[in-house]
Design goal:
This protein has 527 residues and is of the alpha+beta class. The protein has 16 helices and 24 strands. The protein has 2 domains: 2-270 and 497-526, Periplasmic binding protein-like II (D-Maltodextrin-Binding Protein, domain 2, 3-Layer(aba) Sandwich); 275-495, Dipeptide-binding Protein, Domain 3 (Dipeptide-binding Protein, domain 3). The strands form 6 sheets. A 7-stranded mixed beta sheet has the order 8-9-10-1-11-22-12, sandwiched between helices. A 6-stranded mixed beta sheet has the order 14-21-13-20-18-19. A hairpin with a 2-residue loop joins strand 16 and strand 17.
Length: 527
């Protein structure tokens, strides 16, 4: 019914097309960011714009593994892995024309990790490593020293949190930096921001230091980029077909098959896209602290059917805790994850002493097999929860659902009053994903599972510090196997990234770093 309605709508829309300014590209998205300060936001919506406004020391290729130059044209690492010496480009300028120096980069990193005044507290400062000192040792030489090795430091420095910012603009704008203005080194410069409506960016005319992963290193072909917020999915579909917008990655999967039949639209897909949806348990809460309940849940959920129903088949059913295409993925873990088998789920519960009660919900030692699940109230979570709830009920487990609007959901998810939860997240490697969620010091958030295992902590610490890639993969494999055995969460689906564009625009290749579809925007060109 949805697809038929959409096809009717699309066929009727070309007459509504409005001509856009000649060298402007309009990009649609679903929501806005809270601000555009790389050290004070973790929002994907913030990162989308910040990758156009700013640059990082290093960049990452489309394989999500290979590190390439950025603001640093080369670097050396000391044998003990503690000191990184970055040699910065000498031709970089901020949007206001001021030359970029190592002092600016040192300020940016130190601000990120909370060592400037006034102090900024970034929730992802850990991604910079256990920093001893970051300082300029010359006009274009940066000394980056750690207290302990961090094997994935360079990968982390590709993320927008590590962006270069102008110290003078930060001082001048204060709390309004990234709200009323931004002075960066990126291919585009701050134009204006109307919250919950649009961000306007203008071409940085002297920009010539783009990352080598792109065909164009600068300046950008497009004079003006408008990031426009259109909350309704059908309205985004209508706008791109009508020529009122050029690009978006925010088309729900239910519309993809119909969109592919529209002649003036194309889609760029990124196979190395790491954004997973999962269903997690608080492993120390009653009922779900029983591994039999958790493993039976895996056996009761048909992930293939779930993907078909929730993502219209345009996602990958998931097993292991991380994507098979990530660095340091362990294939053996997949074989250990319980498969869909309702009969096996019933046997698992029977053997653990969970017997059917009079209402069909199992009971053990007077405790009903019932738990409460929290999540953000959106269509994906609603559909997934209904399907999982039905599957669990068939094996004798009751799942009660409480979803909240996003404005309050994050606060609810920071409490200890629920037993399970729905979330999704981006990552760039197995080490990145596992470090984020599974160390005991990350409790109560983002380690909402309350996973507290000294051996897991030791493996994560060794993986972080080792200078031997083979040893890092080995210890991360041990953790992946531990999690597969203990079943503290179900990885439900691995989402796919499509960047949709009209034929008016070329060069829209999907990248996917931290979920960001368009990386820098240097290759975009109006035909």
């Amino acid at each position: 019914m949805i697809r038929l309605a959409m096809l009717t709508l699309l066929l009727a829309l070309p007459a509504l097309a409005q001509q856009q300014p000649r060298n402007q590209v309009t990009i649609m998205r679903e929501i806005d960011s809270d601000r555009y300060d790389p050290h004070r936001t973790t929002a994907l919506a913030g990162g989308e714009v910040l990758t156009m406004l700013s640059d990082t020391l290093v960049s990452i290729d489309y394989d999500m593994r290979t590190i390439r130059p950025g603001l640093a044209e080369r670097w050396e690492v000391s044998p003990d892995g503690l000191i990184y010496t970055f040699h910065l480009r000498t031709d970089v300028t901020f949007c206001d024309g001021k030359p970029f120096t190592a002092e600016d980069m040192a300020f940016s990193i130190n601000r990120w990790i909370g060592r400037t005044t006034p102090r900024v507290t970034s929730p992802v400062a850990w991604r910079a490593g256990n920093v001893k000192e970051v300082r300029a040792t010359g006009p274009h030489t940066l000394h980056y020293e750690l207290n302990e090795p961090f094997s994935e430091l360079l990968s982390q420095l590709t993320l927008f949190f590590a962006s270069a910012v102008d110290p003078a603009s930060v001082e001048r704008l204060g709390d309004n930096f990234g709200v009323q203005g931004f002075n960066g080194t990126g291919p585009y410069c701050w134009g204006s921001w109307t919250p919950r409506n649009e961000v306007v960016l203008n071409r940085h005319p002297t920009y010539r230091w783009g990352p080598p992963v792109l065909q164009n290193q600068g300046p950008a072909h497009v004079e003006r980029v408008v990031w426009r917020v259109i909350p309704e999915a059908a309205s985004r579909v209508a706008a791109i077909q009508a020529g009122q917008a050029d690009l978006t990655q925010y088309i729900p999967e239910a519309f993809w098959d119909t969109m592919r039949r529209v002649p003036n639209l194309t889609a760029s897909n990124q196979p190395n896209y790491f954004w997973d949806f999962f269903f997690g348990f608080k492993v120390d809460r009653p009922v779900v602290n029983d591994i039999a309940i958790r493993r039976a849940t895996h056996q009761a959920v048909d992930r293939v059917g779930l993907v078909r129903a929730v993502w219209s088949g345009h996602a990958e059913p998931a097993l292991n805790i991380v994507n098979p295409r990530t660095q340091d993925y362990d294939a053996q873990s997949d074989a250990m994850v319980p498969r869909f088998d309702p009969a096996a789920a019933r046997r698992t519960l029977d053997e653990a002493g969970w017997v059917p009660g009079p209402d069909g919900v199992r009971v053990k030692n007077g405790q009903r097999a019932s738990f409460v699940t929290y999540g953000i109230n959106n269509l994906t979570n609603q559909r997934a929860a209904e399907i999982i709830q039905q599957g669990l009920r068939q094996v004798g487990i009751e799942m009660r659902i409480q979803f909240y609007d996003a404005t309050v959901a994050w606060g609810r998810l920071a409490t200890q009053e629920f037993d399970a939860f729905f979330l999704s997240y981006p990552y760039i490697s197995a080490g990145d994903a596992l470090s984020l969620y599974w160390h005991s010091r990350s409790r109560p958030t983002p380690n909402r599972m309350n996973w507290n295992d000294p051996e897991s902590d030791a493996w994560l610490q060794e993986a972080r510090a080792t200078l031997d890639p083979a040893r890092r993969a080995e210890v991360l494999a041990l953790l992946q196997r531990r999690l597969a055995d203990q079943a503290p969460w179900l990885t439900l689906a691995r989402s796919q990234l499509n960047v949709w564009s009209t034929r008016r625009v070329e060069g829209a290749r999907a990248h996917g770093l931290y979920g960001i579809g368009l990386y820098r925007g240097l290759d975009l060109r109006v035909r």
